Amino acid sequence: MKEITNDFSINQELGRSVFGTVYKGVLPGGGGMIAVKRLAENAPVPFGITFETEVTNLMALKHENIVELVHYCHEAQKKVVQHNGRYVIVDVIESCLCYKYLPNGSLDKHLYDTPSMINWDTRFKIIKGICQGLHFLHKDLNLDTERGPLIHMNLVPNSIWLDDNWVPKIADFGLSRLFGKEQTRMYTVNVKGYNGYMAPEYLYRGEISTMSDIYSLGMLILEITTGEKNCAVSEDRSARKFVDNVHQNLKTDEQIIHKYPSLGPNGLQQVRACIVIGLKCVEVDRSKRPTIVDIVDKLNGKRVPILDLA
């Protein structure tokens, strides 16, 4: 892994998250490229659990909007470190996950006000792709098996990767939870995630359900639609100020057109639908949020009562 990433060079870096850094790996002999994620030693969940969770949950997933795991390695090495003024030998575990190479890197590099900022058509394509990927995780996995939905638990901009055609791929499954067939929720005391994307019931009660992902998805949709960053702070960990600003600044067609002056009627309808979806997804009351089926139907132009305009 060191050889194909030039010793994990910063020049090879494609993106990073709390779970690790992703590098471009160049295979020898003209064998092409892969993406190599080197897991972080200070990840928010124990090192081995992160590796095992991501490998086991990803190996069975095959979908256009889910990142494709092609290889992994996990090895322990002896290393001399200083501890309490003495040098000791410890076992250091190095873990890497290898994915199909995605040349446009992670979404956060293109989302906000940067020279590479993407146009509305591409943004809408990314929103639809993420929703289709989440539909697969929440609904399609359990059609022919005894498994329930897979809850991702980490839907944030740097966990969405983009191929050369801007097709989004959901990545970073280190926090994911696989439910049983009839299971609808679970609880944890070990709450981990990014401020601004964690649902209030998870953040304050440790409650996990499909609605945890829907809340995060809503924040993603609002960020992609507005091009503005969700800047949650310690006293506003669910980013309610960001939500209020979107509600105030993009509630009329005139405000939307000012944001996207080149939009035609179809584009205007798409932006309007995405704002409605995003705001409903981030309702504090989980029972008021739409399901991923509702969201995909709305994006495909169908009438969905829970997402009707107020």
Automatic annotation (TrEMBL):
SUPFAM superfamilies: Protein kinase-like (PK-like) (SSF56112). Residues 8-307 form the Protein kinase domain. It holds the Pfam family Pkinase. PROSITE patterns: PROTEIN_KINASE_DOM. This is Protein kinase domain-containing protein. It comes from Urochloa decumbens.
